[in-house]
Design a protein that fits this description.
This protein is mainly α. It contains 16 helices and 2 strands. The termini are far apart.
Length: about 400
């Protein structure tokens, strides 16, 4: 009887804790805190419409919680003359020259992805896996309160950013290497867009028992150092000057990382120039983005650039700066660009604006949920009905956007 009473008391404590947490808006950077809180309430109420997506998230979190921590020190060897802590990746469009001994120097084959860039020789896939798992675990913790998820998510971020044995140096000097041509290229900075997921995961995990003020200070210090490198390095300057997705994602990274690290002044200065510097230069009055349409996979490039614009608008929302509705009579807007592309989210829908190339719509479904929320227009969700039901029913974008 005493054991039953203790069990009942423990269950009441867990229920109270979960309910109390559900009533507090999460302190997010990108995701809508209102949408997350609503999702948590619906999960607590066992909403059957969300069960498939929730179950898929928990299944993925179960895999992530047992996955090994990722670190740049796990690659077979670092770039020549560098420490193992140096991030190293291969520009995916560069290939060995079959006519030369050892394949050097590598040659550029635009639009063709070299599988070597995804190999364990380099760090690209490690970063991608770590960031995706950290966010999955953070979101699973938010919905369940299971500290096992929070503990593993914290450990992944600590290993990548903080631990002196395993941490990554906060620069990208050796990203997008072109063997025999260049040790690195400024275009490689776009790979740390994955760290936006890490910053969001860190913010979500802060209230958990697994997190601590020490972790916050260490992670913030890493992002502060990386932002400094982005703002002062030659590579950062070159990437910032690009008038395409590289430039948009550069701004998105600086804004998110600065915001996370507490430098709202810098974040505000970035967001405050997006209207004229990025939207005005990249988006035409009808919503077309010419630089994206010139790409070999122009549909993918269009949605990819829109994703960065949505992130910038989300950060602006936190700062009280409205990029969602910014418009100019002589240029386009984020809304116009999205309206231009949205009807073509299905690969089965012919893309009339240029080279289609490869297109994977799955990463971009959160844009439709966020647009429906921001613009108070559920018709945006109708575009998603063209995608397979088997995917949509489990799509995480229903839960967080």
């Amino acid at each position: 009887m005493h054991g039953v009473r203790l069990l009942f008391t423990a269950l009441l404590i867990l229920l109270f804790a979960g309910t109390a947490h559900a009533g507090k808006l999460p302190d997010t950077i990108i995701f809508s805190p209102e949408a997350m809180a609503k999702t948590k309430q619906r999960i607590l109420e066992r909403d059957p419409l969300l069960k498939p997506a929730y179950d898929a998230l928990i299944k993925e979190a179960g895999r992530a919680v047992t996955a090994p921590a990722e670190s740049v020190i796990l690659k077979p060897s670092p770039p020549s003359g560098e420490k193992q802590h140096t991030y190293w990746s291969l520009d995916p469009e560069w290939w060995p020259d079959p006519k030369r001994s050892g394949g050097l120097p590598y040659m550029h084959r635009p639009g063709e992805s070299n599988p070597e860039a995804r190999s364990e020789k380099y760090d690209r896939q490690r970063l991608h896996r770590m960031a995706a798992d950290a966010l999955t675990l953070a979101l699973a913790w938010y919905l369940t309160g299971n500290e096992q998820y929070a503990g593993k998510g914290t450990a992944l971020i600590w290993s990548w950013c903080c631990d002196s044995v395993t941490r990554t140096e906060p620069h990208m000097r050796f990203a997008h290497a072109r063997p025999g041509v260049a040790k690195g290229h400024h275009s490689g900075i776009i790979e740390t867009r994955d760290m936006i997921q890490v910053a969001e995961a860190a913010r979500i995990l802060e209230p958990s028992q697994a997190w601590s003020n020490v972790v916050t200070r260490k992670v913030s210090a890493w992002f502060t150092s990386y932002v400094k490198w982005l703002m002062t390095s030659r590579f950062g300057s070159l990437e910032s000057s690009e008038n395409n997705a590289h430039g948009t994602w550069y701004d998105a990274q600086v804004a998110v990382f600065a915001f996370y690290a507490g430098d709202t002044t810098l974040a505000r200065s970035v967001i405050g120039t997006v209207d004229r510097r990025r939207i005005g230069f990249q988006i035409e009055k009808n919503g077309a983005m010419p630089a994206a349409l010139e790409e070999r996979a122009s549909r993918q490039a269009t949605f990819f650039n829109l994703e960065a614009f949505f992130i910038l608008a989300a950060v602006g929302e936190r700062l009280g700066l409205d990029l969602w509705n910014w418009d100019d009579p002589y240029s386009g807007s984020i809304k116009k660009a999205f309206d231009y592309a949205a009807p073509y989210i299905s690969p089965d829908e012919p893309w009339p604006f240029g080279h289609t190339g490869k297109f994977a719509p799955q990463p971009f479904t959160p844009l439709f949920h966020r647009a429906a929320l921001v613009y108070k227009d559920k018709r945006y969700l109708n575009h998603l009905k063209a995608l397979p039901d088997a995917f949509l029913i489990k799509d995480r974008a229903q839960l967080f956007h």
